[in-house]
């Protein structure tokens, strides 16, 4: 009796190199798309990069161009800022001193605006005290670090309490800024809804010579919180 083991043909469906349906690479669609598109893999890579940038712009960070001098001298006309769209998600809210970009439709005008938050929900904001300073919740705020040289905190007196869920905003170049002071008699009393804030301006990205990280000034650090305030 021939006891030598007889070679048997392997199951082709389990062979590592098979091209059957079960053995196809899950990434086989990529070379197929590359073959279909004019330009091949280069075009496919460009499309992938574009999709990534669109998602980044929609949900994470968005560039904005500064259209006016209302935030000088920190933000100049033509500067491009990167706006962090996740800064106020997941339960966080704007703080006093933050530079924010918001949709002013129905409150300021049909456009996006960039201003500094000086009062959050519950804050009592007054201008000006006996020394001509802005006052928040009874505490004077020294704005000299960011206020435009030669400007006063405000040429328009005001005494407001910011409603819950709203923000009182001012430009750093007070004499060249249309902000909450100019809309005190408008719907909403010049206060913008927190829900209309697009995000926080975190970086000046262009021109390169102006590249800098925008931080919250320490001037508001000692302002006490009022009932309902979150800043």
Quickly list its features.
231 residues, alpha+beta, 8-stranded antiparallel beta sheet, 4-stranded antiparallel beta sheet, 12% helix, globular, disordered N terminus
Net shape: globular
User: What distance separates the N and C termini?
Assistant: 93 Å
Radius of gyration: 28 Å
Largest sheet: 8 strands, antiparallel
The proportion of residues in beta strands is 15-25%
Low-pLDDT sequence parts? 1-27, 51-59
The number of E-state strands comes to 12
| Helix proportion | 10-25%
Order of helices and strands: HHEEEEEEEEEEEE
Class from helix and strand fractions: alpha+beta
Q: DSSP helix count?
A: 2
Q: Calculate the mean pLDDT score and round it.
A: 80
Task: Explain how this protein is built.
The chain has 231 residues and is α+β, with helices and mostly antiparallel strands. The chain contains two helices and twelve strands. The strands form two sheets. Strands 1, 2, 3, 4, 9, 10, 11 and 12 form an eight-stranded antiparallel sheet that branches. A hairpin with a 2-residue loop joins strand 6 and strand 7. The radius of gyration is 28 Å and the shape is globular. The N and C termini lie far apart (93 Å).
């Amino acid at each position: 009796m021939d006891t030598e083991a007889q070679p048997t043909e392997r199951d082709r469906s389990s062979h590592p190199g098979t091209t059957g349906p079960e053995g196809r690479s899950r990434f086989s669609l990529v070379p197929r798309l590359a073959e279909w598109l004019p330009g091949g893999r280069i075009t496919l890579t460009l499309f992938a990069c574009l999709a990534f940038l669109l998602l980044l712009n929609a949900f994470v960070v968005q560039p904005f161009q500064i259209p006016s001098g209302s935030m000088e001298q920190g933000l100049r006309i033509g500067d491009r800022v990167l706006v962090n769209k996740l800064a106020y998600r997941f339960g966080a809210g704007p703080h006093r001193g933050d530079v924010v970009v918001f949709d002013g439709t129905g409150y300021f005008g049909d456009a996006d605006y960039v201003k500094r938050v000086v009062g959050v929900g519950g804050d009592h904001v007054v201008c000006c005290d006996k020394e001509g300073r802005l006052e928040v919740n009874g505490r004077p705020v020294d704005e000299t670090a960011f206020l435009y040289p030669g400007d006063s905190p405000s040429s328009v007196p005001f005494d407001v309490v910011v409603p819950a869920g709203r923000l009182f905003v001012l430009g750093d170049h007070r004499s060249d800024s249309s902000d909450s002071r100019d809309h005190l008699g408008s719907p909403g009393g010049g206060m913008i809804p927190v829900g209309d804030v697009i995000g926080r301006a975190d970086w000046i990205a262009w021109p390169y010579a102006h590249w800098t990280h925008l931080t919250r000034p320490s001037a508001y650090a000692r302002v006490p919180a009022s009932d309902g305030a979150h800043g």
